[in-house]
Structures are given as C-alpha cells and as structure tokens.
C-alpha cells in the first residue's frame, strides 16, 4: 500500500492487500487484524461498509467510516466512531472473504464459471467500492504473496510478457455471485444479462456449477429463460433442477417448453413427481405431453413435437401466412405447414417458399405438394435420419396407421440424437 | 384418467430392473479408484509381504479393508452431496495458500508414483522379453491417446475392463496350489512378530492402502459422473464392492507368493522378481499371469494418476478440466496431464538414475501429506453448511477419527524410516 493515501485518490486496491492488515486505535493500541470485509450490495459497485477484525478467536465488525488513516499493512481506527457502529442486518450484505473470495461465480459476459482469486476496489473520497473481480493467474500469485518476486522475475526474463498487463479483471456488474442464499443478493444488471445469454451457454454454465449453486441460479431465471435453458441442459441436470423448484413454477416452466422436450424431461422424473407436475400444468399442454409420454423416448413418437402449423385445403395463402406469422414466435422450426383433412389425415405439405411466392388468394390445397416421406410413431432414429437426409426435409411428419398426422420430428432433434449416440 | 395416463407405459416396464440399472449406471468411480490402489507399488508390497513373511501378514487385510471403506465412503459422500471435488472444497473453505501447498506436494508425490508405474510396466514386460525402451514409450503414448481422444464414458469403460484383468492374480494363486485351509485361518487370526522387518512390512502394507490422491480422484470422478443424492446408496455400494475386490486381489497376491516363493525360501526384492520366481515353483503360466497382472496394474495406474493429478490441480485453481473437453478448452488440464505422463516415462528410461530413491521420496511425500488430507476431509464432512443432514454421525465420526489417527501414526513411521533410508542411502 502506498504511503500518501489522501493525495493520490482515486486509486485501486486489492482485497488481498487489505487482509491481514494490523488494526490499531488512535493511541496505537492493537485491535487485531483484518479478516474480512462487508459490502452492501444494493448498489452496482457496492461500497465497503465494515471490516471484520479478528483478535484471538473473536471477530468484531468496525465501520469503514471509523478508519482515520491507512498505511502499508496498517489501519488506524477512531475508537469512538467504532463504538457507535451497529452492524446492519444480513440482508443485502455480503462478506467478501466468506462468500466471494475463492468461490465460483458466473461471468455473465464470458458465459462461463470462474473462480475468484482476488477482489479489486476503487477508493474514492474515503469510500472503498468493489469494482472488479480478479480471476487471473496474477491474482493467484498475489494471493500467495509473491506478486513482487514473480513480477520482478518475469520483467527480468521478458519485459514485454503479457503476464504483466493481463490482469483478468471482470467488472462486478458482469458477475453473478451464487454463494449467498437466494434472494439475499440482488444484482439487477447481472440478472438481466443472464436472461440475455444464449440458452445453450446458460445450460453449459449450469452444468459447470454444483447442485446448490445450480438451483440458486435457476431460481433467479424467469420462466421463459428457465424453459429455454432446460431444453438445452442434460437430462440429469434438468430433472434435478425441476425437483429443486416449487411444483407450480416447474409446471409453468414445462408449459413454456416445447411439448416433446417437456415430455423428455418428465419421462426422467419419478412417477410420483411426474403425475404431480402433469396435474399442475394447464390442460391442453398436459394432454399433449401425456400423449408423447406414451411413446418410447427414442422412437419417432418420443422425439416428435406437436408444435406445428396444420391447415385445411380451403385456406388461402394469405390466411396461411397470417397463421404462420401469428405462431412464428412459439415454434422452434417453421419451414413447412401441413395440410390435413377435417379428420386430421395428412394430405400434403407447403413450404414457406411456396406460400410466399403464391398469389394471396391461392388455395393451400392447390399449392401443396405430396409429402416425400412419413414415418410411423414406432420408427427408429435411423429411419428418421434417412428420411430427413434423403428428401432434404427440415421436419419429418409422424403419421399413424390411419394416416393421421401426430406430430413432426425436427432435424435439430434428429441431429442431437445422432450425435448423442456416437 | 390423468393418473392412468401419466403412470403410462414407461413406469411398470422399468420398475423391476430399475434398481439394477441405477446401480450399473452409478458403478465406476468406487471400483476404479480402489483397484488403482493395487498399482505397481501396492503389488510390490503385497508380493514381498507374501514372499518374505508367508501368511503372517494376511490378517491385516481385514482392518485395511475397513479403513479403506471408511475413508473412501466419506469422499464419495462429499462428492455426491456437494457436487464438488475435494480440491474445490479445500480451496473454498481454507483458502488459496493451503490449497497451493497441498497441490505442490500432490504433484511431487504423483510424479514420483507415475515413475513407479512406468518402471512397473518396464519390469513386467521385460519378463516377456521386450526391452523397456520399446515398452515404456509405447505405453506412454497409448495412455496419452486414450485420455486425449476419449470421452469420459469411453475412458471409464476401458478402466472397468482393466479392473477385470486383476483376475490374473486369483488365477495365478490357484495355479500355485496353496493350502487354502491354512490361508483362510491365517486371514482371520491376527498374529504378530517382534522383528523390525515385520513391523516395517506391516506398516508398508497398511501405508500402501490409503493414498492422498485417491480421495481427490474418487470425489472428482463421482462429481463428473453426476451421481444424484437419491442414488447415493448405490454409489456407497460401488465404494464398498471396490474396496473388497481390491483387498481380495491383495489376498491372492500374498497367498500366491506365500505358497511358492516363501515356502521355497527364495529371496526376492521386487514384484517382477516375485513373478519370475513363480515360474519354476508354480509353472510358467502362473508366472506369466502374475507378470501380466503387474503390467495391467501399472498401465492402469499410469493413466489414472496423471489424470487425477490434473483434475484436482485444475479444480483448485479454477481452470477448465475434464476428459470431455477439447485441448483448446482445457489447456492447463491437458498440458499437466501430458507433462506428468512424459516425465514419468522419460525418467524410467534415463540410465543410472536412482529410481528406487525417487520412489521412496514420493512415498515419503505421500505419507507426509496424508494426515492433512484426512483431517481436512473430516473437518469438511462435519460442516453443517456443506453436508447438512449427511454429516458424519457420532459413531461414524468415532470410527473415522480412529482410522485417521491409526493411519497417521503408521504413515508417520513410514515417513521417518523412509527419510532415514533416503539420508543413509539404503
């Protein structure tokens, strides 16, 4: 720590430089050593509110405002100011050493889980604000107390080494701490950014976390984001996450998911839980999922989704396009629409291209073409993959013996099954 | 109607097999870890115990199995309940400095052990007439490719198959025709000799059982496998079965050597000498099987040790790790792995290197580290915040602490005599 504090502000300071500092009162009597720091998380860059001083086995919180002077490895505290201090309640406060340092956190921007090696403060007008999280190798070296020696050695060998500049500091804004109990820490920025992550990144992050952290993170997601992430996560993680939230929330999430994905998830759950969740779900969604659950999970019936656009012959191209537009948001893949009779028998398909290039008044029945291939619900992965690749189909229709359209298997589902097999 | 539909097709069909399927899905970490315990060093110790003291040390296998189960069960339980590796937990609860030094010590000990594994490969293959400069590089490359190109599931399958090859020992023991009545009686009746050599061997046999790296490996493997708390019962069974298999193998090694080498009064000092000595006494097949067993064990451990080391070092420092990742995604992990394998293989090939002293040193470091690891484990597993209702109960704690104290006393002895031998150059 530099000698002349006040004149050099604002300046940066690492938590590791603060820890272990000797604390004395104005008369020079030792009070102990700094063992932790408490920040209030209500602000984007949380200010240090108190330091925890340990003397023997005893730990006392002293307010940051009571610190009169700060020199290398030493803090001088105004004892009277310290005495009046009442440590605030635990809500919206974090102890940095206990809850953040050395723990895993989510780097929202980099979409990955990292370990906290050090914390970086900015000292402005006597207040200390947490601004960065250090996740780099240099932070590790500093924690070991070897920064000077290693820096010197590196400078001697390679003065241009990237090591000397490349501190891996993440803005506190871009970090989502997970060690605290749910609801205790609220960092709006990071939370909003979590929802902006690509669902597969989010799923990957969740796989990297341990069970408790996963549940904490998942609990903070809104229903829609949670559903998207679940669709990408592995079955083990998915079931564990659903079992960790309330049945109502789990049901909401399942409704939000594509029926085939929801059925896959439910198939993994114990019978009791599955029944309970199906009861809690809205009727039409639950009905679709139940039907899907009857098929073997690896057959066409098990892989198919019932999310598709189904129209009659006498619909016009304009009406068809309107329907497509209406449903575009909820459908994962929208490339063909399916033409069926009133009884649900599949008659033909229309691609989006057909619809767009047709006259608005043209009837779908006239535009439609023959279905190149269909499969039965019992069909295996191989049949599906063959149909998709032979006829360049983006989705393969699943049709029962009566010719009734049951659903479609989309090519991305086929692909992920094929890759999963390896 | 809803219940009948929801209960549906899947459930009744799965029910009768479910338990077995879950067990088979969970099996792996426990059995693999315990088997790797019978590595080149372990087999050497057991062979010598049988060759030099006959049946006199067989009884120690019973308490050894109990100690192994107690310690391994704690590792597996922590892995399943917290979803974190042991290095993770130590770092998060005791900070970076402690973790750093533990990792340094583990790295030193594990490189030393890996050297021992490669010299086991060299010695066992030499019995079949292949020189080390051919067998060691080929093994090293095979080991390296397996982990670099494989996925976790594939690698685990290879490991499980390697576990099957330990059957070489029971078979060679049967070929050696021991008097099974005497062998079984010796297993259940503790005996003691007051000689210094006997005590040293006893400590060696116990000391080879619980190594620091095993606890880290088991816990990480359980976590990577993603075993859920509700399946913990199966995981515990995996651990117990693994520990029993391990000591059954040890039992047959001691029995085979006791029935032949000890009875004939041949003097042997290494595991490959024991394998060769079996030839004229029990037939060349017994001898070959014994040598093959040593090769399998050494190969197996030469894969797992570097792997385990890379796992927990990356865990501790927050680097990406895992067999399922690609090189670019987990640079530190694969670099470490490559380095340890290369170093282990290269050192064996250097002529005139004091191999025995290097192995002795790695054993001493292992021994010095073990108390810290066991104490950390006990402290962690009793933390309410981490383990909740799955903390140790009072009885289990009693047994675990007792095991720990006994292990510490015995390994302290090993370290002291090891250091003495290192200094005097014995």
From TrEMBL, chain A:
Q: What is this protein called?
A: Membrane protein
Query: Do you know which PANTHER family this protein is assigned to?
Result: MAGNESIUM TRANSPORTER MGTE (PTHR43773)
Q: Does the keyword Transport apply?
A: no
InterPro entries given in the database record: CBS_dom (IPR000644), CBS_dom_sf (IPR046342), Mg_transptr_MgtE_intracell_dom (IPR006668), MgtE_N_sf (IPR038076), MgtE_transporter (IPR006669), PRC-brl_dom (IPR027275), PRC_barrel-like_sf (IPR011033)
Domain CBS, first and last residues per copy: 304-367, 368-422
Zinc among the record's keywords? no
What are the record keywords, sorted?
Answer: CBS domain
TrEMBL record, chain B:
Task: Respond yes or no to whether keyword DNA repair is given for this record.
Answer: no
Claim: Cell wall biogenesis/degradation is one of the keywords in the record: no
Organism encoding this protein: Anaeromyxobacter paludicola
Question: PANTHER family, alphabetically?
Answer: NATURAL RESISTANCE-ASSOCIATED MACROPHAGE PROTEIN 2, SOLUTE CARRIER PROTEIN FAMILY 11 MEMBER
Q: What is its main location?
A: membrane
Topology of this chain in the membrane: Multi-pass membrane protein
The UniProt keywords, alphabetically, are: Membrane, Symport, Transmembrane, Transmembrane helix, Transport
Residues that span the membrane, as ranges: 20-36, 56-74, 94-115, 121-146, 158-177, 197-218, 239-265, 285-313, 334-354, 360-382, 394-416
Q: State its location(s).
A: Membrane
> InterPro entries recorded for this chain?
NRAMP_fam (IPR001046)
- How is this protein named in the record? Mn transporter
């Amino acid at each position: 720590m530099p000698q002349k504090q006040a004149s050099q502000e604002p300046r940066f300071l690492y938590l590791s430089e603060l820890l272990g500092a000797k604390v004395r009162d104005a008369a020079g009597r030792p009070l102990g050593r700094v063992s932790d720091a408490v920040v209030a998380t209500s602000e984007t860059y949380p200010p240090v509110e108190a330091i925890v001083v340990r003397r023997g086995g005893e730990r006392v919180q002293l307010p940051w405002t009571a610190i009169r002077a700060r020199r290398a490895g030493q803090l001088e505290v105004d004892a009277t100011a310290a005495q009046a201090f009442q440590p605030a309640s635990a809500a919206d406060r974090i102890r940095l050493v206990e809850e953040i340092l050395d723990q895993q956190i989510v780097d929202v921007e980099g979409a990955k889980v990292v370990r906290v090696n050090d914390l970086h403060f900015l000292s402005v007008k006597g207040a200390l604000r947490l601004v960065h999280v250090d996740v780099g190798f240099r932070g590790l070296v500093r924690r070991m107390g070897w920064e000077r020696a290693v820096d010197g050695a590196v400078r001697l060998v390679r003065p241009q080494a990237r090591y000397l500049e490349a501190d891996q500091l993440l803005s506190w804004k871009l970090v989502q701490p997970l060690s605290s109990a749910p609801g205790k820490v609220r960092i709006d920025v990071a939370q909003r950014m979590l929802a902006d992550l690509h669902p597969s990144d989010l799923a990957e992050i969740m796989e990297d976390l341990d069970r408790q952290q996963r549940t904490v993170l998942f609990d903070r997601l809104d229903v829609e984001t949670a559903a998207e992430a679940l669709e990408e996560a592995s079955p083990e993680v998915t079931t564990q996450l659903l079992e960790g939230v309330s049945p109502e929330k789990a049901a909401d999430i399942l409704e939000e998911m594509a029926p085939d994905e929801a059925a896959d998830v439910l198939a993994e759950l114990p019978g009791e839980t599955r029944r309970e969740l199906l009861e809690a779900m809205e009727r039409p969604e639950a009905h679709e999922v139940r039907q899907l659950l009857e098929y073997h999970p690896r057959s066409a019936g098990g892989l198919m989704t019932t999310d598709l656009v189904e129209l009659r012959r006498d619909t016009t191209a304009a009406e068809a396009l309107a329907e497509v537009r209406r449903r575009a948001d909820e459908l994962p893949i929208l490339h063909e629409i399916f033409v069926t009779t009133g009884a649900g028998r599949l008659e033909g398909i229309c691609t989006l291209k057909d619809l767009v290039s047709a006259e608005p008044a043209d009837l779908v029945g006239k535009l439609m073409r023959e279905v190149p291939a269909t499969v039965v619900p019992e069909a295996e992965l191989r049949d599906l993959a063959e149909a998709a690749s032979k006829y360049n189909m983006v989705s393969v229709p699943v049709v029962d013996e009566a010719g009734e359209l049951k659903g479609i298997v989309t090519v991305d589902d086929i692909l992920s099954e094929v890759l999963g097999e390896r | 109607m809803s219940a009948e539909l929801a209960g549906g097709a899947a459930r009744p069909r799965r029910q009768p097999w479910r338990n077995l399927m879950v067990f088979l899905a969970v099996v792996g970490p426990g059995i693999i870890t315990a088997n790797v315990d019978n590595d080149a060093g372990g087999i050497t110790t057991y062979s010598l115990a049988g060759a030099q003291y006959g049946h006199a040390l067989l009884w120690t296998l019973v308490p050894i199995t109990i100690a192994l189960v107690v310690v391994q069960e704690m590792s597996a339980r922590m892995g399943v309940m917290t979803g974190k590796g042991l290095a993770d937990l130590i770092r998060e609860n005791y900070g970076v400095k402690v973790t750093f030094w533990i990792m340094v010590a583990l790295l030193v000990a594990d490189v030393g052990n890996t050297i021992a594994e490669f010299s086991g490969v060299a010695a066992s293959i030499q019995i079949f007439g292949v020189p080390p400069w051919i067998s060691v590089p080929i093994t090293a490359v095979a080991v390296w490719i397996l982990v670099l190109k494989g996925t976790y599931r594939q690698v685990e399958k290879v490991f499980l198959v390697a576990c099957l090859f330990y059957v070489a020992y029971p078979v060679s023991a049967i070929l050696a025709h021991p008097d099974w009545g005497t062998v079984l009686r010796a297993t259940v009746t503790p005996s003691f000799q007051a000689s210094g050599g006997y005590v040293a061997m006893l400590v060696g046999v116990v000391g080879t059982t619980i190594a620091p790296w095993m606890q880290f490996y088991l816990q990480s493997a359980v976590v990577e496998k993603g075993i859920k708390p509700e399946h913990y019962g199966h995981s515990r069974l995996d651990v117990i079965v693994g520990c029993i298999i391990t000591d059954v193998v040890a039992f047959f090694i001691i029995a085979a050597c006791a029935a032949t080498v000890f009875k004939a009064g041949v003097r042997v000092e290494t595991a490959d000498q024991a394998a060769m000595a079996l030839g004229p006494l029990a037939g060349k097949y017994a001898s070959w099987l014994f040598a093959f067993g040593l090769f399998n064990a050494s190969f197996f451990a030469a894969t797992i040790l570097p792997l385990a080391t890379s796992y927990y070092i990356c865990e501790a420092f927050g680097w990406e790790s895992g067999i399922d990742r690609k090189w670019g995604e987990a640079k530190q992990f694969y670099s470490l792995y490559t380095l340890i394998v290369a170093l282990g293989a290269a050192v064996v090939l250097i002529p005139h290197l004091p191999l025995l002293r290097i192995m002795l040193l790695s054993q001493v470091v292992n021994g010095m580290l073990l108390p810290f690891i066991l104490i950390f484990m006990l402290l962690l597993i009793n933390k309410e915040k981490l383990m909740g209702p799955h903390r140790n109960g009072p009885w289990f704690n009693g047994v675990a602490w007792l095991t720990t104290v006994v292990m510490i006393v015995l390994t302290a002895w090993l370290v002291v005599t090891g250091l003495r031998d290192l200094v005097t150059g014995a």
